[in-house]
Amino acid sequence: MTNPYSATQWLQLSMQQQGLLQPLGSLSELMQQLSYVQIDSINVVERAHHHVLHNRLADYSPAMLDEAMNDKTVFEYWSHAAAYLPIDDYRFSLYRKQQLQQGDKHWFEPEHKVMLEVKARITAEGPLKASQFTHNADIKNGSWWDWKPAKKALEQLFIQGELMVARRDKFQKVYDLTERVLPRNIDITIPSDTEYAQHLINRYLTAHGFGNLQQIQYLRKGLKPLLTKTLAQMCEQGEIAHFTGANAAANQGYFYQPKLTLPTSIPNKVWLLNPFDNLVIQRQKLKQWFGFDYQIEVYVPEAKRQYGYYSLPILWRDRFVGRVDVKADRKKQCLLLQQLSFEPDAFNNQGLDNFANEFTLGEVNDKDAFIAAFIDAIEHYAKFNHCQRWQLVQCNDKAMGKILVRASQHGIA
């Protein structure tokens, strides 16, 4: 079958499926729709998992995620990375846990003696953090792979399913026995191979609108034969549809759920997306389909960075138009836009006169409409980061930069 939609329409569908166009009513509903939210520790601004939810839920606050953990509507485990997942998907985490219990390796070789000691202490004392276990001070701790033995044991017990994260304390995991954390009504039947594959496929297509085999199995090893077989079966049964054609790489088929309907409209809105946002985390798809070559530069040496340490993709309407490197100066309560970089073809060539003096939308043209939406997005994001004002430091569009500097001086409404 040929591709039923244009690249722009697929982006619109992805935005719709990602909960960006019509925010869902509750955190629980959103988690079901997204299937996961990645956890990340970088805190130059509010952490990634909170930012992802902030973009999709009205009046979101980090306390809502803590409440969801306490209410046991979400749990922590590994998706393609550390993540929050809906508790209804718990049984599908058992598929990987069983493999690990049977000898598959996650990060390092299990140290069974230490694991027994760690588990025994938690059994006797209750929930504990890694920092509550002593270690040999003569052993130098370096990068994350040099974790002390107790920390390794905790993570191995967690990834195998014997421990769960009961809560976080100042971002540190607090571990407890799974039987003391998991609600009793949760299904703990280990899924079959086919059930697990169908779950991954349906979750991905529900959350993203469309995808290929590589994207569905993203950062999950050893699943290609099973997913290939299951995708073919689901196509034959009419549960999903398949296409090749424009924007589809050679020998790659794309899959989608036939019930999809295009959104009726796209608002004049700017979304400042997190680098770990579900919509942009698969960089090759972003580049191939939507023409946006994005890379987070946290891991790039400072001298080689083009766009800044923590640059957020800027999605305007249904176009990726640039990036903005952000940092919250918490002492001064100021959100710094350290580097605002627009794509060469981000806007048409119409002028900026309508925004030169008044900060209301005049005659609609691309740049004027964008500025109104961008200022609104920046103000909301600044408030989310507990900042009372924002400041533009550098911009690659001088005319746009001058207008935004003036706008920042008016303060946050």
TrEMBL record:
It comes from the Bacteria. PANTHER family: CYTOPLASMIC PROTEIN. This is Winged helix-turn-helix domain-containing protein. It comes from Shewanella frigidimarina.
